[in-house]
Amino acid sequence: MTDLRSNIHAAEQLASVAAPPRTVAEALAEALRELGAVHACGVSGGAQALIWAALSKRLEVLHFRHESGAAFAATEAHFASGRPTVVFATTGPGITNALTGVLAARTEGAKVVLISAYASAPNRGRGGIQETSGYTMPTGGLFEAGAWFDDAVVLETPDQLPQVLRRLAAGLRRPGGYVAHLSIPNAVQGAALTQPLPRLSRAAADGAGDLSTRPGVSRAAVARCVDLLSEVPFAIWAGFGARAASAKLRALAERAGAPVMCSPRAKGLFPEDHPLFVGVTGMGGHTPSVAAYMRGEHAPRRILVLGTRLGEPTSFWSSALVPADGFVHVDVDPMVPGVAYPQAETYAVQAEAGDFLSALLEAWPARPAPRPPRLARPHPGQTAPDGEARVRPDALMSAMQRAVVDGSDAVVLAESGNSFTWATHCLRFSEPRRYRVSTNLGSMGHAATGVLGAALGSGRRAVAIVGDGSMLMNSGEVNTAVKRGLPATWIVLNDGRYNMCHQGMAALGMSGFADTGFPPTDFAMLGRAMGAGGMRVEREDALEAALAEAMSSPGPFVLDVLIDADRPAPSQGRNEGLLAAQAVRREEAGISFPVLGS
After folding, report:
1. pTM, rounded to two decimals
2. CB–CB of 436/454 below 8 Å?
């Protein structure tokens, strides 16, 4: 009897100190870790305190200064690491602030999960603080699959969690991007689990998807592609969707003697110093070398397109880029081929780029590669420094080529605007995964905050080339980088105006119609005020020493470069497209105004 009482007493004592049942928030955080997530980026709030605490115990959490910055950083952390990333936000403005960055993740093809809070059912419609419900904000599309999210749900009871986690696991394993939104009412976050959770396999890395979710490669389609491509001279047009297949792409190009072009987002996928490299197409690209090739005696009869939609930033939908016999277009999404150029002959293949190239290389005829054509070199020459005037952007790019691209292994991001066009046109990369731009949503502020995610995900220095307008938009995240000690460098093209807009208005003949300027800002001083390193450069002969200091800094650094604002940016077709569109609209509206050259 004594032994029985002792055992009962011991059991009671154990029960009194045993951990309480896992909550929904804790289980979700553990599941995200199991699915491969390591980093979570967001801004705190009372309505999602339990989620925030659970994520902080299981993931590496970065507390940002604005939710859009958190989402931009999460996007770039995914591309730098190949892992899914988490964004967390509170109710009301927390969700709406995050949406621009989340949409960037969706359009860029990242794998990101947004976790937010939602008003508990008994409190909806009662005027709660930052209430999120159908009474207070539009819910259509925010909490269901659609244009914003690949999948979205409000978790109303703990019973939903197993099926939601299975959907998350399936989405994160599939090829390409996946952006999901899971909103959890306050009361549900702390509720105990009611049933066991499924075992989850880790999400596949870098957007390729696991073998069970990727479409198979048709042997018949590969055989047809061999026939189409080996019978005539062909070129390869590579996009960001082929980023995991750079070695196979190079092997095919060299075996077939096929010249290679790439989209702006795919810059570096094929070595830019390779004799078969034609150039970057589209915005900021190498229009002269691409045009010379497409018009020359060695022009391709067909083009093999891999992993790009051929959208406006990549092609400007120029008919000059359509080869005589059309395209062989390979994409994991069967809806992509033929959309950009519906008038062109297109043989469509649904496949992941790396799988397709493996099959094509295996089936390619064993014969000597044809002698490659002599191609025009796409990049401009190096600009020698001049110590007399403000810094020319092309001189800055020449100095960056030496100090940043060739002199380090840093990830380089270029902001939307003239920063994008200068960097894309002038810098040269010989390896993939070192250059990132956003050409889809193209939001200002993306690189200014995405640089934190790139540094976090890559584990090495990341450099953002940004305009002063973009830096003013999201400069608060320098403070976030200081808190975490991230090796992030901002190189600010400081000209006191939204210069792409200014130069674009001039090209449209509307120079005096809109105000594009703003008061001057000392970004080096701003960076130092937030705890980062900072230096201002006013002359080209000071660039080399300034870049050396910025790149050797152990933590965040802001390099403020006063640039020549009147140096025309290499927009490469953007202004011509706007001019053409404006001409059509003027004819339709029966109005006229001066245009450049009229």
Report:
1. 0.89
2. yes
